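Q: What residues go here?
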């Protein structure tokens, strides 16, 4: 599931606890008011959007289905099957090929420097969704560049589509109530929205 607007600003562990998530990670980049900068859709519908929404690729999720869709923004249609969506940037793997350093957008500091990272990926047959985090900015974890992350996802996970999500101090993964990585701030960060695997049949309340 993807966050509903009422989940905005929760830490990943708070979000996971609220929805009894099996696995949860942070999702899109966000502004000073903890508003995701791209399109966000929860099970209760589209979030109210700021005046300027970044045109970004989205991960759309539905019943036993997930797709990474080309850059999209407010008012653009999504598939009728979509029950949730989070935005990210940039796409790392496309058509079963990791994008090279030269193909990936962004500055050297963002794209080609090592940082903590969060990403989501989809297997070639579309049957598996991968949630990926890489720690960094510590003596025990250097982080990854975006080309490294894309290559890892393609070569180790054999995924055919992958999307980078917010990283740095936002990068966090919670599995069954336990934080399994080391957030680089030294503590959890409140984030704009989230992505989670929840028990079958779970329906989050709409407030």
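A:
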């Amino acid at each position: 599931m993807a966050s509903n607007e009422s989940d905005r600003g929760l830490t990943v562990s708070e979000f996971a606890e609220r929805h009894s998530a099996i696995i949860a990670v942070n999702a899109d980049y966000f502004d000073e008011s903890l508003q995701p900068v791209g399109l966000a859709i929860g099970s209760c519908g589209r979030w109210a959007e700021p005046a300027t929404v970044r045109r970004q690729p989205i991960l759309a999720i539905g019943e036993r289905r997930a797709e990474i869709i080309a850059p999209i923004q407010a008012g653009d249609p999504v598939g009728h099957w979509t029950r949730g969506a989070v935005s990210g940037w940039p796409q790392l793997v496309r058509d079963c090929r990791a994008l090279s350093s030269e193909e990936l957008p962004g500055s050297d500091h963002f794209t080609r420097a090592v940082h903590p990272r969060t990403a989501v990926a989809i297997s070639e047959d579309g049957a598996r969704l991968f949630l990926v985090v890489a720690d960094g900015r510590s003596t025990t974890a250097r982080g990854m560049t975006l080309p490294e992350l894309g290559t890892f996802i393609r070569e180790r996970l054999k995924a055919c589509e992958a999307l980078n999500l917010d990283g740095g101090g936002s990068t966090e993964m919670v599995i069954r109530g336990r934080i399994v990585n080391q957030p680089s701030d030294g503590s959890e960060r409140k984030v704009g929205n989230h992505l989670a695997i929840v028990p079958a049949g779970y329906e989050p309340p709409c407030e």
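A: Context that may help when evaluating the design: The longest helix spans residues 146-157. The two ends are 16 Å apart (CA to CA).
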